UniProtKB/TrEMBL annotation, chain A:
Residues 18-102 form the SCO6045-like C-terminal domain. It comes from Pseudonocardia thermophila. InterPro entries: SCO6045-like_C. This is SCO6045-like C-terminal domain-containing protein.
Automatic annotation (TrEMBL), chain B:
Transmembrane segments: none annotated. Pfam families: MbnB_TglH_ChrH. This is Uncharacterized protein. The lineage of its organism: Bacteria, Bacillati, Actinomycetota, Actinomycetes, Pseudonocardiales. It comes from Pseudonocardia thermophila.
Length: 147, 287
């Protein structure tokens, strides 16, 4: 608890709500500890449902990667993305594709899809992908100055 | 197109009849579907300056289009994103929408996004946060906002209100309307071993702007839990609950189908929409 408060202390209640919301989100998508008082089975089911939803969205951004796995796609996605916060369908799918490639498990049908993405966009694995064309231009105009 | 006279719930007079959530994957079917009176578009999926061709064509047909926000996180304690509020208002202006809608939910906290709508604790603090954010949204809108209670099978230990009392209080405080999803009412009741009809009775039905209906199913990994997937057919008991709703409000509300994945062939979607119209007591359009 955050110091003394009464039942009518709306501000302290909202601060407590912020902490509880953050705990719940962290538990659901970032491998955080289960917050007190929630049904563990329902938390686990919610975690799985969120992963299935993300897998479905990633499949729209990475149709060949998802199709190559067929019905196993949600499980393949969950294997890599469980406990990792959503980064959006493009990056989520990209992370899965790279992890599969690193493990020698990227299906043949998805190799071109990944290669085309990597040719068009620069993705550092932690922030939003940027068009490689912009990077070349930026380097041309600002590169020397930075050096 | 044959025009049919239908009663409406009246909260948003421009909305009536049967509608559908427009999605790019079913744009062709929506374009060919006769008798649509209104639809929805996911606000975050469009640029108001250049709405998708299919949405523009709906407007040209005289079909009302409601921007449906899914990422505002109205119940979140993180500050409301002013850009998202402006975007939703711009969508409504661009589409000439009679109403916009969002959810009674939060989408993330502490710098993390959940990727989906999460349930709120039904507490006074959550009501304060929600009401303040809804008022901020209303201040930027020229049209009413309708709020949709979500489907969830997760309960907060803090809950002080029933879902219906929480909603009633929220709508009273803000003057917002209700977007009632009968599939969500069904899911929330059956996942707690309760009767959906009782849950319906307690909802502030007089505040309905329009109604959602969608499909769902159990998942093999979670036996005993009904998931509101929007990617399965509308099950019989959800149709039955729509019928119960029509009985309670004494007329057909504007009602629309939400389908977000595993799209079936056009004729299956058409049959489902016909069944919704028939259940709601709305005339089935000429085919």
């Amino acid at each position: 608890m955050t110091g003394p408060r009464s039942d009518h202390d709306g501000r302290a209640d909202v601060e407590e709500l912020a902490i509880r919301q953050a705990e719940l989100v962290a538990a659901l998508v970032a491998g955080g500890a289960s917050p007190a008082g929630f049904d563990p089975a329902r938390l686990a089911a919610t975690r799985r449902a969120l992963l299935r939803k993300r897998a479905g969205e990633a499949a729209k951004a990475w149709p060949l990667l998802a199709a190559a796995h067929g019905a196993a796609w949600p499980a393949v996605f969950a294997e890599h993305c469980a406990g990792r916060p959503p980064a959006g369908p493009l990056r989520d799918g990209w992370d899965v594709a790279r992890a599969l490639r690193a493990g020698g498990r990227l299906p043949e049908a998805a190799v071109t899809e990944l290669a085309e993405r990597e040719a068009a966009l620069h993705y550092d694995g932690t922030s939003a992908p940027t068009p490689r064309r912009w990077r070349r231009l930026r380097r041309r105009f600002f590169g020397l100055r930075r050096a | 197109m044959r025009r049919v006279t239908v009663p409406s719930a009246g909260a948003v007079p421009e909305l009536a009849g049967v509608g559908v959530g427009w999605r790019p994957e079913i744009s062709g079917w929506v374009a060919d579907r006769p008798g649509l009176r209104f639809g929805e578009v996911i606000a975050e999926s469009i640029a108001p300056a250049v709405p998708p061709r299919g949405v523009v064509e709906l407007r040209e047909r005289g079909v009302e289009v409601v921007p449906h926000g899914i990422r505002l996180s109205l119940g979140g304690t993180d500050p409301l994103d002013p850009g998202k509020v402006t975007h939703l208002a711009a969508c409504a202006a661009a589409l000439g929408s009679p109403v916009v809608s969002e959810h009674v939910a939060f989408c993330g906290a502490g710098g993390l996004t959940a990727g989906h709508l999460l349930p709120l604790p039904r507490t006074r603090a959550a009501l304060d946060v929600l009401a303040a954010n809804v008022r901020r949204l209303q201040a930027e809108l020229d049209v009413p906002v309708a709020l949709e209670p979500i489907a969830s099978f997760l309960d907060w230990p803090e809950d002080e209100f029933t879902e219906a009392d929480f909603l009633t209080e929220l709508l009273e405080r803000t003057g917002a309307l209700l977007l009632l999803d009968v599939a969500n009412v069904y899911a929330n009741a059956v996942n707690r071993g309760r009767d959906p009809r009782t849950a319906l009775d307690r909802m502030p039905l007089s505040r309905i702007a329009y109604v959602h209906i969608a499909g769902g199913a159990e998942h093999p990994d979670d036996p005993g839990i009904y998931h509101d997937t929007h990617a399965d057919p509308v099950p019989e008991p959800v149709f039955a609950l729509l019928g119960e709703l029509v009985d309670r409000i004494g007329g057909a509300p504007p009602v629309m189908l939400e389908r977000d994945g595993r799209y079936p062939p056009a004729e299956v979607l058409s049959a489902e929409l016909d069944r919704i119209a028939e259940t709601a007591g709305l005339a089935t359009p000429a085919r």
